[in-house]
Amino acid sequence: MAKDRGSFNSRFTAIMAMAGSAIGLGNIWRFPYMVGQNGGAAFILVYLFSAIFLCIPIFLAESIIGKRTHLSTFGAMEKLAPGTRWKWLGFLTVFTPLIILSYYSVVGGWSIEYFLKSLTLSFSDPAVSMEEHSAVFGGFISSPWRPLVLHTVFLLINAVVVIFGVRGGIERFTKLTTPVLFILIVLIMLYSVNLPGASAGIDYLIHPDFSKITGSALLSAMGQAFFSLSLGVGCILTYASYLKSDENLLATGIFTSMFDLLFAIIAGFAIMPAVFAAGIEPGAGPGLIFETLPYIFSTIGVDAPWLCNIVAILFFLTILFAALTSSISMLEVGVAYLVDQRKMSRAKATALLFAGCWILGVLCSLSFGPLRDLHVFGMTVFDACDHLTSDFLMTFGSLLFVFFVGWKMKRAEVRDEFTNCGTLRFNSRVFGVVYFFIRYVAPAAIIAIFLSNLLI
Ligand code: TRP
What we know:
By secondary structure, the protein is mostly helical. The chain has helices at 11-22, 25-37, 41-69, 73-80, 87-119, 130-142, 145-163, 165-192, 199-206, 215-228, 235-240, 249-278, 288-303, 305-342, 346-366, 381-408, 411-419, 425-455; strands at residues 375-376, 379-380. 78% of the residues lie in helices and 1% in strands. α5 crosses α7 (145-163) and α16 crosses α18.
């Protein structure tokens, strides 16, 4: 391994960092509104199916490449398939996370705004109606300046953490925040499912209406599963390149996916019942949680204003941390490429990528206000970036990764990496099944879902 690349200290910190990358706005912000836009329980079923049968094999494929080479995407491909076109996959995986980061940091900026609001105790007034909370959010995202400033602040925090590198920055950051967020979201869920009128929301989450499963819902559910686990863009590959060579990939993969899955489902049960209790439209889109959470907090405020304030502050603070631990991983992929392949310094690489993301992010942010009529493929810039990455680039990237490990690498090589040269007994026993999933099931299912989007 290159001397100055750094590595994770222990299994615990590696899982926490990977889970930190996986658990983020994707679980708390994106999952609930995607569920709402795609018809509820049926979407969740497809999501679960994709998460278990597709995401784990893809996760393993990416981490096998990362741990085998201890290099970031581009270098890893060069090393395993020298002189071939596979290195272009390296490029794809450098650019996709950067597009994602651009719009992600806009939502990161919204989280900062709501954290600041919670500090000024803005949610404890029960006299503020649901409509007023929605109007405040609408006014905020469509105003030109404030979201832009906060987008910049969010991106700057990322840059600072990434400059400090793996141990100093990322590890220290993720160890604490992930468990706190988990506890808070469980508490909010318990509160939310007991709100008057919540049962319609619970129903919506558990009774599937299969007529809602269209080709595009299938693709969105799969895209959401990939998004949530940070797959198909080299994030997991890059993090796995920081693993020690004797790490157990199956264990890290299963733990990380299960944490992430559980988290999304709990977030769904925290948000959706409250959406129904408050009479919000479940298909409201990207603003869903920013309109719903203030409502939850202000109903807590009726009986216990101090509790409402404490929960609101802690909650928005941890959302912010969850967002940061994910966005850091997106920036890290590109920085790792520039440092490893282009021999740039960390600081210079970070500054360069910061600039690119900042510009695209500005367009995304303005697409809720002054640029709302600027359409790309019939969508706003924000929606276009989201759609292009999660439905196409990530899916395509994931397909290429499983294909590479399943068909391009030698079976013995994959086996060695997965079982640590046969020393992990359980992994050796299940290798056949895992390999079958990587080689056949995952690629076939991705292609089938992709085609079904075009056909139904
Ligand atoms: N998985 C993260 C979330 O759920 C987002 C994320 C981090 C991501 N890294 C990624 C998404 C890379 C796509 C690609 O919020």
